[in-house]
Amino acid sequence: MAKVHMEFYENTISKVFKDASEKWFKKAGAYIRKVAMNSIKKKKDESLHSAPGKPPFYHGSTFAGGITFKQSIMFKASKEDVVVGPIAGRLGALGALHEHGGSNTVEYIASERYNHVFKVGERGPVSTKKFDSAKGRRIAGYFDPLTGYPVIDAELRTRRMADHATRVNRRVLKEYFTKTKTASYPARPFMRPAYVTSEPYLLGMWKNAIN
Question: What's the angle, vertex CA 22, arms to CA 20 and CA 27, rounded to 5?
């Protein structure tokens, strides 16, 4: 009758499993992140939005640190799990709105002339330290937020004045005409679809994770 001696090295097996798990979570996080980022398409026209239920578009707008919403999708892996999605803060809140839908208070400028580009020959807002009634009509109550100088309505006689008027116009409208409203956002999920798309690949990768 044969005798069989078996030894079970629990600590060794546990270490191998945890090391393999960490490597797999890192690869899984990177893969899901890539799939999620690829699903978010860039559109130059900011008036275009993806259909509800589809991943959102992004328009190239940058946030703190100079990153776009698409670039904000990160992952953090450990030996126990991996977290994938937009970084915390404003971008994280924006990501949650897209993923699940909801409402949010947003700022907007209540003027159609915010993006107006002034040309020579037009009349436009000019900030000046010394008011001269011969050069223009003072716009009562408005001051340039950058310089603190009064703003006047003047004839734009040179390209330099026209460019200046364009900049002053945007500063004044942003300072005096910014309002808030509650906007509703339909769900445009991008993280869950990325996970569902990635799942078959991740299962295959886990199958070969422990050698």
Answer: 95
Residues 6+ apart with CB under 8 A from 8: none
Choice between 96 and 21, residue whose per-residue pLDDT is larger: 96
More confident: 77 or 62: 77
The secondary structure of residue 35, as a DSSP letter, is: H
The DSSP bridge partners found for residue 42 are 58
Q: Per residue in 93-146, pLDDT tens?
A: 888 889 999 998 888 898 989 999 999 999 999 998 876 655 567 777 899 999
pTM of the model: 0.64
- Long-range interactions of 140-143: CB distance < 8 A, separation 24+: 142/172, 142/176
Q: At what angle do helices 10-39 and 191-207 cross, to 10 degrees?
A: 140
- Angle (deg, nearest 10), helices 90-100 and 191-207: 90
Token digits of residue 6: 């078996």
Count of beta carbons in the 10 Å neighbourhood of residue 73:
22
pLDDT beyond 60 at 88: yes
Identify the bridge partners of residue 83 per DSSP, sorted by sequence position: 76
Which residues face 74 on adjacent strands?
85
Q: Position of tokens 């947003």?
A: 106
Please name the residue that has the structure tokens 């445009």: 188
Whole-number CA gyration radius for the chain = 28
Do 117 and 165 meet the contact criterion of CB atoms below 8 Å apart? no
Angle 172-178-180 (CA atoms, 0-180°, nearest 5)?
180
